């Protein structure tokens, strides 16, 4: 019997007899489904918080209540508002985590099959004192499997020191990245829409989020406070002395807006927005830039790639080597290179923007 | 000429006055003159004739400074920022004091900083580097894993693409620290990125990489695979010791010769793909707007460039006429520096400078030009050439081709005007 299965029966021993116990085959099937969760969630004896919180005694637990685990804001406030995990709430959450709880940081996309949800709940309940599993059933479920699937073997062997030597590469260093780990970090989006999560949000929804979270730096209409970035306007200024480079006037691709807001905004509270929030904000930024004009416009992963920003065509690949100073074979002039003595035509001191002076601010910002 | 001995503090006060443009009369220069006094003075120097405190009293023991710091007399040698450049110091830049340094290596604590979400503080035990995407085996490395790959030691300059970016519209900042200080040069110890990619195994359609930082800005840039396989390093040491937190501790990407923004710090992930990602730092920023309103993208290489660090506005000539050492730095993202020419008359006549110290590809080069200053006004310029025939252009030549709105990649020839009192200023000339 494997260690985890021993733990399982021990936990089940604590279980209170319930009226309608889950069949052992459900528990066993649930254990298989739980493999998708294992890289982030632990259960059983000494289960610790990992990427996600440990799941012992989940049923009856208030959401966001394990001390020392860094929950999303959304999860914490759901708990404060009274969300307690039971069959129904766990089921709904696992079906579509981000739809059930906007702002959850659980990267898992959700279980598509109802049967998987039922089975995983049956399995998780065997680790809950509130659980419903009689001892005999759990023991039956605890029969070891003859063949460990390959996927699980990798998951267990890889992180442990002294485990099987992996066979990848030349040096066999590092371990295999788990799908859940890749999903947690792989948030980047490309212009063709690759990487966009499922989600949607309207201009109006985005406006509300913007006013609350973005306007303090970027201004009510994207005009920018102080030297914080201007987000809107500036169309037609790119050839002027002071070009205003905004999403509408300069940025080539909408995917950049989604990706950047999602990874780095709000400044100082990065990655706190839900996917739907980011869609809504992106829609609102399109609205502020007059790319869309309807407040009811809804941006989603479905229509995202259809949206084009006005300045896309005005970018071209680096061609500096065509300029005369590149790859010359001529020796540069060494004497009498100018007909007249050089004269000073401009001085830094006139502007007086060097620190230590009483500078107010110079002309060219660099960020 | 003053009979009062001058110490460094007075010198620094004088430098500050210089910076503010406070010294206008020749008398100010005399007060600031250091070395010339002893030659003509008949009065014995009390620093020699009298026993000094440090001759007599014991200094600190070996337990006083477990991690050594510079002399208290060097307290003015610091990175400095320009508050008005950015909205907030958390997403900003400071500048290397080039005028206070010599040789080619930048001390770790003086390497300029540029970050977009503050300095992440990450325990190496908690750091992971993931390689995934178009690979055979997506991998996660711990720092321990990285240390088990074969390492290389390489000296490279890192220059921000916006170095000198404030000078496109003309002379603005008075000091090479501010005009050219977004560059540093250190020896990196790290693992060739190629080895890490090979460990994961590249798919046939792999063509681009997306390195990503673990900081609050989640910095990303698209890098073509060829560059990664050529000379990129995943580095954990600079100048022999661990990376400083502000330089990406515990691990950063090194992209030799290419703009500093691509050298992703706190490197936690490298995705392998078949197309570039066009993320924020390669679209809205780090693209070069031309006069016609179109913009260059993927301007990766930092071009051939040089600057005279001494004399310069923060380092005026304090010794008066006579033998004068002019020195500066030259570099090229294409390769080695072949030659640096110096003009003291605003580019009418040029003299080749002496390059001293190691001449390494994509590294700073130190040059010297010694001359006998007759006390007349000077217009100092340096012009670098690299081994591939690329020549540093004048600022006006650049403006003629690119306009004044590029922000990035200003490698134009810098002019310093030295007045007869030694005072030096950032100027533009005809």
Describe this entry's structure for a reader.
- The complex is a heterodimer of chains A (367) and B (430).
- With 367 residues, chain A is mainly alpha-helical.
- Chain A has helices spanning 3-13, 24-33, 73-80, 87-95, 97-100, 114-125, 135-141, 150-157, 179-185, 203-213, 215-218, 254-264, 275-288, 348-351, and strands at 175-176, 200-202, 298-300, 315-317, 344-347.
- Chain A has a two-stranded antiparallel ribbon with strand order 2-3.
- The longest helix of chain A is centred in the C-terminal third of the chain and has 14 residues, at 275-288.
- Chain A is elongated, with a radius of gyration of 29 Å.
- The model of chain A is unreliable at 1-19 and 131-160 (pLDDT under 50).
- Chain B is an alpha+beta fold and 430 residues long.
- Chain B folds into two domains: 87-296, Alpha-Beta Complex (Sulfite Oxidase, Chain A, domain 2); 305-427, Immunoglobulin-like.
- Helices cover 15% and strands 29% of the residues of chain B.
- Chain B contains ten helices and 24 strands.
- Chain B has helices spanning 8-19, 26-32, 36-40, 46-49, 53-56, 143-146, 176-180, 193-200, 225-230, 395-402, and strands at 80-81, 92-95, 114-115, 128-133, 139-142, 152-159, 183-192, 208-213, 223-224, 233-238, 241-242, 252-254, 267-273, 288-289, 295-297, 305-310, 322-331, 337-343, 351-352, 354-356, 365-373, 378-386, 415-418, 424-429.
- In chain B, the strands form six sheets. In chain B, strands 5-4-13-8-9 form a five-stranded mixed sheet.
- The longest helix of chain B is centred in the first third of the chain and has 12 residues, at 8-19.
- Chain B is globular and about 80 Å long.
- Chain B starts with 7 loop residues before the first helix and ends with a strand.
- Mean pLDDT of chain B is 92; it is low at 1-11 and 13-38.
- Classes of the chains: A mainly alpha (367), B alpha+beta (430).
- Chains A and B meet through strand 1, helix 9, helix 12, strand 4 and strand 5 of A and strand 1, strand 4, strand 5, helix 8 and strand 13 of B.
């Amino acid at each position: 019997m494997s260690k985890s299965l021993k733990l399982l029966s021990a936990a089940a021993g604590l279980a209170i007899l319930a009226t309608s116990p889950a069949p052992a085959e459900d528990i066993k099937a649930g254990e298989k489904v739980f493999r998708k969760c294992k890289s982030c969630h632990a259960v059983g004896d000494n289960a610790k918080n990992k990427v996600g919180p440990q799941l012992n005694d989940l049923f009856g637990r208030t959401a966001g209540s394990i001390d020392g685990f860094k929950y999303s804001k959304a999860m914490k406030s759901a708990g404060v508002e009274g969300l307690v995990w039971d069959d129904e709430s766990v089921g709904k959450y696992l079906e579509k985590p981000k739809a059930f709880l906007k702002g959850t940081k659980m990267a898992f996309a959700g279980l598509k099959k109802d049967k998987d949800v039922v089975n995983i709940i049956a399995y998780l309940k065997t680790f809950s004192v509130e659980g419903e599993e009689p001892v005999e059933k759990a023991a039956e479920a605890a029969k070891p499997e003859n063949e460990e699937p390959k996927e699980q073997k990798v998951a267990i062997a890889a992180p442990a020191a002294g485990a099987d030597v992996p066979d990848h590469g030349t040096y066999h260093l590092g371990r295999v990245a788990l799908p859940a780990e890749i999903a947690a970090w792989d948030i980047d989006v490309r212009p063709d829409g690759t990487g966009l999560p499922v989600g949607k949000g309207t201009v109006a929804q985005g406006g509300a989020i913007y006013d609350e979270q973005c306007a303090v730096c970027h201004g009510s209409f994207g005009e920018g406070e102080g030297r914080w970035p201007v987000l809107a306007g500036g169309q037609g200024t790119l050839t002027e002395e002071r070009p205003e480079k905004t999403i509408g006037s300069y940025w080539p691709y909408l995917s950049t807006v989604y990706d950047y807001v999602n990874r780095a905004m709000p400044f100082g509270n990065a990655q706190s927005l839900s996917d739907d929030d980011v869609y809504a904000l992106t829609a609102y930024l399109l609205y502020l830039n007059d790319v869309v004009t309807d407040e009811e416009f809804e941006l989603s992963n479905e229509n995202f790639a259809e949206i084009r920003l006005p300045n896309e065509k005005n970018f071209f690949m680096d061609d500096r080597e065509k300029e005369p100073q590149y790859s010359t074979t001529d020796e540069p002039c060494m004497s009498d290179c100018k007909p007249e003595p050089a004269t000073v035509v401009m001085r830094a001191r006139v502007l007086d923007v060097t620190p230590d002076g009483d500078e107010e601010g110079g002309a060219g910002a660099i960020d | 000429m003053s009979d009062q001995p001058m110490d460094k503090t007075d010198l620094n006060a004088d430098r500050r006055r210089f910076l503010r443009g406070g010294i206008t009369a020749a008398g100010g220069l005399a007060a600031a003159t250091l070395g010339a006094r002893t030659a003509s003075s008949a009065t014995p120097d009390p620093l020699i004739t009298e026993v000094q405190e440090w001759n007599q009293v014991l200094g600190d023991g070996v337990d006083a400074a477990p991690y050594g710091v510079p002399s208290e007399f060097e307290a003015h040698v610091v990175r400095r920022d320009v508050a008005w450049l950015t909205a907030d110091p958390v997403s900003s830049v400071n500048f290397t004091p080039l005028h206070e340094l010599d040789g080619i290596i930048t001390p770790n604590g003086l390497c300029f900083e540029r970050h977009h979400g503050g300095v992440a503080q990450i325990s190496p035990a908690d750091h992971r580097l993931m390689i995934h995407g178009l690979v055979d085996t997506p991998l996660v490395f711990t720092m321990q894993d990285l240390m088990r790959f074969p390492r290389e030691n390489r000296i490279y300059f890192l220059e921000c693409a916006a170095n000198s970016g404030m000078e496109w519209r003309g002379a603005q900042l008075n000091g090479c620290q501010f005009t050219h200080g977004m560059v540093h040069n250190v020896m990196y110890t790290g693992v060739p990125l190629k080895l890490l990619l090979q460990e994961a195994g590249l798919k046939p359609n792999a063509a681009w990489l997306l390195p990503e930082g673990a900081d609050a800005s989640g910095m990303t840039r698209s890098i073509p695979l060829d560059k990664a396989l050529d000379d990129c390093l995943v580095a954990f040491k600079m100048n022999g010791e661990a990376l400083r937190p502000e330089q990406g501790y515990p691990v950063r990407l090194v992209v030799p010769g290419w703009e500093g923004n691509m050298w992703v710090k706190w490197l936690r992930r490298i995705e392998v793909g078949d197309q570039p990602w066009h993320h924020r730092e390669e679209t809205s920023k780090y693209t070069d707007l031309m006069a016609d309103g179109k913009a260059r993208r993927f301007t990766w290489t930092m071009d051939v460039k040089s600057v005279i660090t001494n004399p310069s506005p923060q380092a005026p000539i304090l010794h008066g006429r006579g033998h004068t050492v002019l020195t500066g730095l030259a570099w090229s993202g294409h390769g080695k520096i072949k030659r640096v020419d110096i003009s003291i008359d605003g580019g009418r006549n040029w003299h080749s400078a002496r390059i001293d110290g190691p001449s390494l590809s994509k590294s700073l080069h130190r040059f010297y030009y010694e001359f006998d200053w007759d006390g007349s006004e000077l217009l100092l310029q340096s012009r670098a050439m690299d081994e591939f025939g690329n020549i540093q252009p004048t600022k006006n030549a650049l403006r003629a081709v690119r306009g004044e709105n590029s922000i990035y990649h200003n490698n134009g020839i810098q002019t310093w005007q030295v007045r007869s009192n030694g005072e030096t200023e950032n100027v533009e000339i005809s």
